[in-house]
Amino acid sequence: MELQNKATALWSNFFNVKMVQIRTFHMTWFAFFSCFFAWFGIAPLMSVVRDELQLTPDQIGWAIIGSVSMTIFARLFIGWLCDRIGPRKSYTWLLLIGSLPVMGIGLSYNFETFLLFRVLIGGIGAAFVITQYHTSVMFAPNVVGQANATSAGWGNLGGGVTQFVMPLLFSVMVVGFGFSEAVGWRLSMVVVGVIIFLTGIAYYFLTQDAPDGNFDDLRAQGKMEEKRNVTGNYMHALKDPRVWVLFVIYGACFGIELTVNNVAALYFMDYFDLTLVTAGFVAASFGLMNLFARTLGGLFGDNFGSLWGLKGRAFWLFMCLFFEGCALMVFSQMHVLFLALPALIVFSLFTQMAEGATYSVVPFINKKALGAVAGVVGAGGNAGAVLAGFLFKNVIDWSQAFFILGIVVTCASFLAFFVRFSTRQEDEERANFAAANIETLRLRALKANAALEEGLQAISRKNGSQPAE
């Protein structure tokens, strides 16, 4: 059954943290930002780790694959868990437990132990599923695309910020506090792990599962399906071919972003002869586009949905993916920095818009198994990153690897035409969309009326008379 009292506006209430929907929105993006930062925190320091642990290119490739492989299984599980115990408890436990390997990677002393912790850290990548789940249950159809895209985009921003913050933090540890390089990168990861742990505690106390309360209370009131139905709904969602089409599509956008986050710093160091810090700043430009690019993907997804319904959302997804693939092929052929950097930014723009467009479609696939759909599609991103990682593991020129990925993404874009909806669902969602817009207009009218009354009262007080009836 449909949850009630979802927020019908995002930006007009952006700073109103008294609204549980807005407070939850801010906590979800910040929690995901922290997780993404920790997930790829070691990537910009890999040149230091490589020298200390004497890692070969093949071993670095396995570390790249390991960092995203664990997340596939974690995302499949976390989607089921959200439907069962709610996003609030799911996020809290993920953050508390996930902080341990983030801090623990400092115990690595050879390739095997480093790989083990790198794989375990990948579990916090499941935070994305909870982020998308939580905003989906908090926001109405007219803004759910942009709410999902913005929370995820600002979370993904952590992958860009970490590219220059971690080298700076490492420099502070080595230069400022006088630690050796071997100790410096380890302490840097401990700092990040502590932040993750504290965020988990804050998430438990500052959010709730749904606009009207937590799942346990809503089930007791008969406003949600029972826990015993969760597994059945999950299995039913797995039989929907649209879920697996979106699985592949998300691998072609988010999977590419994960791969670039892992290899960008090393790519610009080795192919453009940049220093550690400079390469980190250049690599960060890719992730920093999440500040607005993914939001644009969700915003245009909502706009296409208002004009052409659910099929409009799917068509917008195709456009983003197609241009992402083309831009990636162009980037792969740029061999001087002043051409490679703008090509990287354009490629990043379409990649992250494609991610936002994907999750402007996901909430409408199966509302009874939202966690299942969000989890499976999210896992597709990591599956794509694992497959892409093998290109960088093998002895192949990395620019050629990027070109091959561009071809794959361009071909995958046409799968968006297989994401179809029944006429009945199209009509239902048009009605829901219209109702949400009417509610938005009603709330705006109430605010305008309240502001007018306040203005009249202020004028009356200034004139020393009572307001006219």
UniProtKB/TrEMBL annotation:
GO terms for molecular function: nitrate transmembrane transporter activity. Its main location: membrane. Residues 24-424 form the Major facilitator superfamily (MFS) profile domain. The chain crosses the membrane at residues 28-48, 60-78, 90-109, 115-133, 154-179, 185-206, 243-268, 274-293, 314-331, 337-357, 369-392, 398-419. It comes from the Bacteria. It is found in: Membrane. It is a multi-pass membrane protein. Keywords: Membrane, Nitrate assimilation, Transmembrane, Transmembrane helix. The keyword Lipid biosynthesis does not apply. PROSITE patterns: MFS, PROKAR_LIPOPROTEIN. Pfam families: MFS_1 (PF07690). SUPFAM superfamilies: MFS general substrate transporter (SSF103473). The keyword Transmembrane helix applies. GO terms for cellular component: membrane. Coiled coil: none annotated. InterPro entries: MFS (IPR011701), MFS_dom (IPR020846), MFS_trans_sf (IPR036259), NO3_transporter (IPR044772). GO terms for biological process: nitrate assimilation. Belongs to the major facilitator superfamily. Nitrate/nitrite porter (TC 2.A.1.8) family. This is MFS transporter, NNP family, nitrate/nitrite transporter. It comes from Cognatiyoonia koreensis.
